[in-house]
Amino acid sequence: MQWADTGWINILFVLVLITAMLTMILTNIKRSKASREGLYIRRIAGLNAIDEAIGRSTEMGKPVLMVPGIGGLNAISVQALNIFAYVTRTAARFANPIRLCCADAAVYTVAQEIISDVYNKEGLADRYDQDSVRFVSDRQFAFAAGVSGIILREQTAATFFLGEFFAESLIFAETANSIGAIQVASSTETTQTPFFIAACDYVLIGDEFYAASAYLSREPVLVGSLVGQDIGKILIAGYVLLGVAFNSAQQFERTTDPDTQTSRPLKSDERLMYMIFNPDPNRGKPKEEEEK
Amino acid sequence: MNFLIAQAPATPPLNFWNGDNATAGLWIKIIIGLVLGFALMIGLLFAPTRMRRPIVVTFTFLAGLFWMVQWLWPRAGEGVTEPTNATEGVALWLKDALPVVTDFANILTAFLLGLGIYSLVSIHGKRLIKKQTDWVFSGILLLSIVIMMIFGYADWLTRLGEGAAKVELVPGFWNRGRDLLFDGMLQQMDAAMFSLIAFFILSAAYRAFRIRSIESTILLSTALIVMISIMGAIVFMLDSAAAPVSNNLKLSEIAGWITGSLQTPAIRAINFGVGVGALAMGIRLWLSLDRGGVSG
Fold first, then answer.
1. What is the pLDDT of residues B57-81, one digit of tens each?
2. What angle in degrees, to the nearest 10, is found between the helix axes of B135-160 and B86-129?
3. Higher confidence at residue B112 or residue B296?
4. How far is C-alpha B280 from the chain's CA centre?
5. How far is CA A82 from the centre of its chain?
6. How far is Cα B147 from Cα B153, in angstroms, rounded to an integer?
7. Each residue of A41-63: b (16+ CB within 10 Å) or e?
8. Orientation of helix A208-217 relative to helix A45-60, angle to 10°
9. How far is the C-alpha of A210 from the C-alpha of A208, rounded, in Å?
10. Rounded CA gap, A40 and A44, in Å?
11. What's the distance, CA B251 to chain centroid?
């Protein structure tokens, strides 16, 4: 059984983490619902710029382009689609055309449902164009070529690149930049964030991306969960600091070397933190027994 | 989805969820599965609107619960086929159910891909028929889809059939055609798109590194130090000049400090935030707490 070795500590850690996060999220949702002014969220420039970008494209009469990355249907693309639902709602009110390009068939299907739902809820079903949500290609660079083509042909005035982006990020950002489109971008891949920072007007960095739906909607459930998530983050940071303290303290600890019978400092793989996260059922057993 | 597919073993052993080929038992299971599937679909179609959300919430929760339990539940030992206790019984059931659940994901992906292709054909077909702007490109796209499908399928058939080994030695018309289309054209066009990034990096870097503010000056200086630190000859000269004064002033040391002490912690901090954000988002989705665009 798995819990015969020390590997269960990792599982326990994750269970404690998930339970703590869940408790924080649920408690703060309750707090947020009870609070009249709502819980505080700091200003995020990239999200404030969404309305500005849509307003600009309305003035110019050009479409708004949205790309939820090239990843599959996961938490990242779902979050991107949540933000796009907000963008579409605002664009629909101003009768602004939208283009949502997908590289994954599952994301495409969900996106189509969400966008049509947004138009229906706004009572603007007649303004919904089925072709506004498109599946372009599931090949990375074919998708990059397809989206770049749409940007150039339709001269999109505002572009939103939010989700999982890889090498194609700069192709999109530079193409949109070349036609003077206002750009809001975010990639959960840290390797692509610098490219977006260099080429886009506004960039959501790291967890700002996950704060977007709460920030935009101010819905108590989302705001509460965001605050709970931040408290959870502080808790994890506390865990990390505890680990650092343990590891640092053990740097001064000495042990007797079994071969030379002399005192020496602990090796890195003899420290508590290493042993917790690298379970070895044979650790500590005499070598002969290990061989058996 | 790919993550789910990757976890499935290639040929699952016989269990409650499958059966021997061409046996009555397997047919009965297929028919029961089909009937249940259709009943479920019809039930969902005719379910009252107010019931749809509870159904979606229940399905989402159960699906999430399966993966949570699958990951957290202790595994049965190697070679154990008969459970000796309840824990092992659940572990074996989960092991058997895993390929079934991943098959569900495969089937769903296949359907969704069909919808994706329908979207492509519909948009470009309309453009072609109505002869809208750039209809020629739409025509080329549709033609490419058809040609690639024909050559791809014919190639697959010949490589999989009895003469497969022969095809490896002397490729035929369909195999050569497929290689030309896939390796000779598609891959090359992919590479061409990829190589464009080099030029885009240049123009983006030019804009980002222009000295306009304190931040961009800091960015420019650090970027210069790191860039120069990977030019061997210059590093040798500058390090030799700095060595008599202090080892800490060596270019390689400064660049190492920037990447090790500034860049790496910053990247880890961002990844940490993204990880926690994804975890919270996952919990919200699992428990259907998020009533935004997706589950609203």
1. 898 899 999 988 888 888 887 888 8
2. 140
3. B112
4. 21
5. 12
6. 10
7. beebebbebbeebbbbbbebebb
8. 70
9. 5
10. 12
11. 40
Mean pLDDT of chain B: 85
CA A147/CA A150 separation, integer angstroms: 5
Residue B258 token pair:
């920037």
Q: What is the pLDDT of residue A4?
A: 46
Using the structure block, give the residue that is written with the tokens 């503010």: B213
- Nearest Cα residue in chain B from A82: B293
Distance from CA of A33 to the nearest CA of B (A): 13
Question: Does pLDDT of B6 surpass 60?
Answer: no
Euclidean distance between CA atoms A199 and A179, whole angstroms: 12
Beta strands in A62-194 (DSSP E): 64-69, 98-102, 133-135, 158-164, 182-187
Cα atoms in the 13 Å half-sphere on the side-chain side of A265: 8
Q: Return the structure tokens found at A99.
A: 């283009």
User: Which amino acid type is present at position A110?
Assistant: V
Q: What is the pLDDT of residue B96?
A: 85
* B216 CB-near residues (< 8 Å, 6+ apart): B208, B209, B210
Q: Which residues of chain A have pLDDT under 50?
A: 1-4, 292
Integer Cα distance of B182 and B190 in angstroms: 10
Amino acid type, A5 = D
Q: How far is CA A290 from CA A275, A285, A287, B60, B280, in A?
A: 17, 6, 5, 45, 42
Angle between helices A208-217 and B264-286 (to 10 degrees): 50
**Cβ-based contacts of B273 with chain A (< 8 Å):** 206-207, 233
C-alpha A85/C-alpha A223 separation (Å) is 17
One-letter amino acid of B18: N
Report how far apart, in Å, the C-alpha atoms of B83 and of each of A60, A94, A204, B97 are. Answer: 68, 63, 51, 15
Q: What does the alpha-carbon distance between residue A16 and residue A8 come to, in Å, rounded to a whole number?
A: 12
Domains and CATH numbers, chain A: 45-218 (3.40.50), 224-280 (no CATH)
Are A165 and A194 spatial neighbours (Cβ–Cβ below 8 Å)?
Answer: no
- Look at residue B162 in the predicted model and tell me its pLDDT: 67
How many CA atoms lie less than 13 Å away from B169 in the CB half-sphere?
Answer: 3
For residue range B135-176, list pLDDT tens digits in order: 999 999 999 999 999 999 999 888 877 667 777 777 889 889
Distance (Å, rounded) from C-alpha B28 to C-alpha B10?
Answer: 24
Task: For helices B86-129 and A105-121, give the axis angle rounded to 10 degrees.
Answer: 70
pLDDT of residue B5: 46
Say whether A206 and B120 touch across the interface (CB within 8 A): no
> How open is the CA angle A242-A246-A252, to the nearest 5 degrees?
150
Read off the DSSP letter of residue B258: I
- The sign of the torsion formed by the CA atoms of A226, A227, A228, A230 equals positive
pLDDT at A202: 93
Chain B residues 277-296 within an 8 A CB cutoff of chain A? 277-285, 289-294, 296
Tens of pLDDT along B269-283? 899 888 888 888 888
Using a CB–CB cutoff of 8 Å, tell me whether B82 touches chain A. Answer: no
| B260 close to A (CB below 8 A) | no
Say whether A229 and B280 touch across the interface (CB within 8 A): yes
pLDDT at B295 over 60: no
